[in-house]
Amino acid sequence: MLSRLLESYDIGPMVVAATRVPEDKVVLRVEAEVKDLWVWQGRTPDYVFTNLGLDKAGDILFDNHLLLFWTSYTILMYMRHSKYQCAWYWIILQVCF
Hints:
About 70% of the residues lie in helices and about 0% in strands. The chain has about 100 residues and is mostly helical. Helix 5 (about 65-80) packs across helix 6 (about 80-95). The N and C termini lie far apart (about 45 Å).
């Protein structure tokens, strides 16, 4: 499905549009496929944050509906790539101890 959509749309605006209707089955599938594609491409959470325009959100960052998408992507990335898992655990250990 995602490959068909990418023939006509850019991925950034497509994610923005998809997050506005969060409970639709097609939207959930597209979001999952975008996340899988970005993980497969090795896109860092920093890249995704910037690509979604969250770096320009300013004071309304926490009100932005794309923040949930980015957060779930970041968690997925950390779960799938061991080098990020180590970094994630190291950050937690530094904060907790």
